[in-house]
Specification:
Blueprint (H helix, E strand, L loop, with lengths): L6 H16 L4 E2 L2 E2 L2 H11 L19 H14 L8 H13 L2 H12 L5 E4 L15 E5 L2 E8 L10 E7 L10 E7 L5 E6 L8 E12 L10 H16 L2 H17 L1 E2 L2 E2 L4 H25 L4 H35 L2 E5 L6 E5 L2
Helix pairs in contact: 1-3, 3-7, 4-5, 4-6, 6-9, 7-8, 7-9, 8-9
């Protein structure tokens, strides 16, 4: 694709910069002061939900890769927060746009975009994690309803969510990849119990969810009964894109560069340490590669396949950025909060300190 910016695109960049300058007081330290109000403002101006039709609460613009890139670059440069993301906005909304009914799109997309509904994903089970198609949570037909029994695990935001998109087995006699349906239902439906799962941090970032005779209308099925595996993979495609978002990674890189150029150890900026600087330059090159690969996949007919790799690359790269930040700041903290002389280990990972007199 041609990355040359036309006068029209340069004018669009000026428009984005003007918006950010005018609304700078609405966010602080990279976070909006009022997240829902900020989300509404972004949608109104086309900086969130840009290509989602107005009929479903979006801005309604035609897809334009370069305008999307300009928006990302200017928001990163200004340290401004982007629109809301998460399981509802980033995963369910595009799934409904792809395979949902008109009633489901009209009912669920607008409040989800506006941050009025938090969603959780009911996929993994104690016996069906990596082998998702082996899920056993069942939904038995009873009149106009399904009656759901079973459990899910590792369910992020289940304790906070108002809604769940969930995979259940509606035809147990069929092969495991068939007979699965994708349902939407409220988390306050009778028979649902959420039990938080504490991690080593002491926080409950995940949950177990138990279903005991939970009644859900048949109209809650997305994409057709027995087509849950197909719909679930559409959702996972968008999850991979969310977790491998090059814009979020570029923003992390910018924050890391800011810290390394402002904090000092023994009068020397962290970035002037040759080992840390070399690691930063290597990561910067990878972030740029990820950024331009993101542009390529947007124009590639095989983008759905490419996203599988993008998720892996993005997670690994974010981990390495965080590792450099920890190593660099450990070096800084040791020099400023303890009576020690510190320097990087030969391998450039962590610090080596000795107590000074």
């Amino acid at each position: 694709m041609d990355l040359t910016l036309t006068p029209e695109l340069e004018a669009f960049r000026d428009e984005v910069r003007g918006f950010l300058a005018a609304h700078a007081s609405e966010h602080e330290n990279g976070a909006p002061k009022d997240p829902r109000a900020w989300q509404r403002t972004l949608i109104q101006h086309g900086y969130a939900a840009r290509t989602i039709p107005k009929a479903y609460g979006g801005f309604g613009a035609e897809p334009d890769i370069l305008k999307g890139r300009i928006i990302a670059e200017e928001f990163i440069a200004a340290g401004a927060p982007r629109g809301m993301a998460g399981q509802g906005i980033s995963m369910l909304v595009p799934t409904l746009l792809e395979v949902g009914s008109e009633e489901q799109k009209t009912r669920w997309i607008p409040p989800t975009l506006n941050g009025e509904i938090i969603w959780c994903q009911g996929y993994s089970e104690p016996g069906a994690g990596s082998d998702l198609a082996n899920l056993q949570t069942k939904a038995v037909e009873d009149g106009e309803d399904f009656v759901i029994s079973g459990s899910k695990i590792w369910t992020s935001t289940a304790a906070q969510a108002q809604m769940m998109f969930c995979l259940v087995r509606t035809e147990p006699e069929k092969p495991k990849h068939e007979g699965i349906s994708y349902l939407l239902f409220p988390m306050d439906t009778p028979g649902i119990e959420v039990r938080p799962l504490k991690t080593m941090t002491g926080q409950a970032e995940f949950n177990e969810v138990f279903f005991t005779d939970v009644r859900v209308p048949k109209t809650s099925v997305v994409g057709g009964r027995g087509r849950g595996w197909f719909v679930a993979n559409a959702t996972l495609k968008h999850e991979r894109g969310m977790l491998g978002d090059p814009n979020a990674t570029e923003a992390r890189l910018k924050d890391l560069i800011r810290v390394m150029t402002t904090e000092t150890v023994d009068g020397q900026r962290i970035i002037d340490n040759p080992i840390f600087r070399d690691r930063l330059m290597q990561l910067q090159a990878r972030v740029l590669s990820m950024k331009f690969n993101g542009l390529r996949t947007l124009t590639d007919e095989t983008a759905g396949l490419a996203r599988m790799v993008v998720k892996l690359q993005g997670c690994e790269l974010n981990h390495q950025l965080a590792a450099l930040a920890i190593d660099a700041l450990a070096n800084w903290a040791s020099s400023t909060t303890m009576v020690r002389t510190c320097g990087p280990r030969a391998a450039g990972s962590g610090t080596t300190c000795s107590t000074s007199a």
